[in-house]
Amino acid sequence: EIVMTQSPATLSVSPGERATLSCRASQSVSSNLAWYQQKPGQAPRLLIYSASARATGIPARFSGSGSGTEFTLTISSLQSEDFAVYYCQQYNNWPPSITFGQGTRLEIK
Amino acid sequence: QVQLVESGGGVVQPGRSLRLSCAASGFTFSSYTLHWVRQAPGKGLEWVSFISYDGSNKYYADSVKGRFTISRDNSKNTLYLQLNSLRAEDTAVYYCARARSGGSNYCDAFDIWGQGTMVTVSS
Prior knowledge:
The complex is a heterodimer. Chain A is mainly β.
């Protein structure tokens, strides 16, 4: 099983500043990497797929990068609505494999 | 609009069964692989199972293999998850989710999620 490790577990950032979240895979997942945002009591929302493609309706301040085993989600200028938990997910079509990271909580500093 | 709506959750005793449903609308249901993902209280996301667009391929996480069964009825635009031999560790919110690109891309990012249904396994 591919293990996804996110860091840090909690990130404290002030509104307007940049946030950088990391995700590492235990083996190469190529660019089969997605990022999700989850707020309390809500379902996750897709932000980024294929490591760097923004999902429909996602603001440009969200960007993803990386390939292989190292990935980054960057939020360029934090808005109040961005404080949430973020998950990375790897997906491989064959053999079928899907695993999530343990999440990074982004909190207001 | 495009949406998934889960139902069927509840409180059940260990060893008992439950069937979850996920009703879809706003898209061509029969063209997409669908997944179940769960989240235990205060914990992260765990993938559970998927079924291909035509129902011919099904996969399960090791933690539920042999106990859970995924199915779909494309004539009713509905996804199901039969949960048998339930354990306390199955307690979670269960989400259905759509694989983004459709067709034979079974494993993909999940672009549409339901609101979730809570399953509590307790005596």
